[in-house]
């Protein structure tokens, strides 16, 4: 027993396979929303019709979503998550990284982002001359 057909499977083929497997095991199938019972020939016919309609509707929804995304891209809208850092923050991070006393971690904390975000938006850190990072030992010696 399921609340509706679309909760059991993602495609018509999966749905038919599951219900056929249940039938081989002498297990009836009922869908509450569609008031469907596959233990009768009429119920099996209605099951196949409803399953085909459910898949058709799902495909229409997916197609509509893809068309909407394509239209948004054509209008030049930016899709997805907004950038984590502004151009001003990136310039500020680059400026701070020129000073040897600053670490990537301290700059990330100052700007309210993660270290990996700094490396993402300032790619020359990974490829260019490395900014010297104080070691744990050097920090301990400085604190002694």
TrEMBL record:
<comment type="similarity">
    <text>Belongs to the site-specific recombinase resolvase family.</text>
</comment>
<dbReference type="GO" id="GO:0003677">
    <property type="term" value="F:DNA binding"/>
</dbReference>
<dbReference type="InterPro" id="IPR009057">
    <property type="entry name" value="Homeodomain-like_sf"/>
</dbReference>
<dbReference type="InterPro" id="IPR050639">
    <property type="entry name" value="SSR_resolvase"/>
</dbReference>
<dbReference type="Pfam" id="PF00239">
    <property type="entry name" value="Resolvase"/>
</dbReference>
<keyword id="KW-0233">DNA recombination</keyword>
<feature type="domain" description="Resolvase/invertase-type recombinase catalytic">
    <location>
        <begin position="1"/>
        <end position="76"/>
    </location>
</feature>
<dbReference type="Pfam" id="PF02796">
    <property type="entry name" value="HTH_7"/>
</dbReference>
<dbReference type="InterPro" id="IPR006119">
    <property type="entry name" value="Resolv_N"/>
</dbReference>
<dbReference type="InterPro" id="IPR036162">
    <property type="entry name" value="Resolvase-like_N_sf"/>
</dbReference>
<dbReference type="GO" id="GO:0000150">
    <property type="term" value="F:DNA strand exchange activity"/>
</dbReference>
<protein>
    <submittedName>
        <fullName>DNA invertase Pin-like site-specific DNA recombinase</fullName>
    </submittedName>
</protein>
<keyword id="KW-0238">DNA-binding</keyword>
<dbReference type="InterPro" id="IPR006120">
    <property type="entry name" value="Resolvase_HTH_dom"/>
</dbReference>
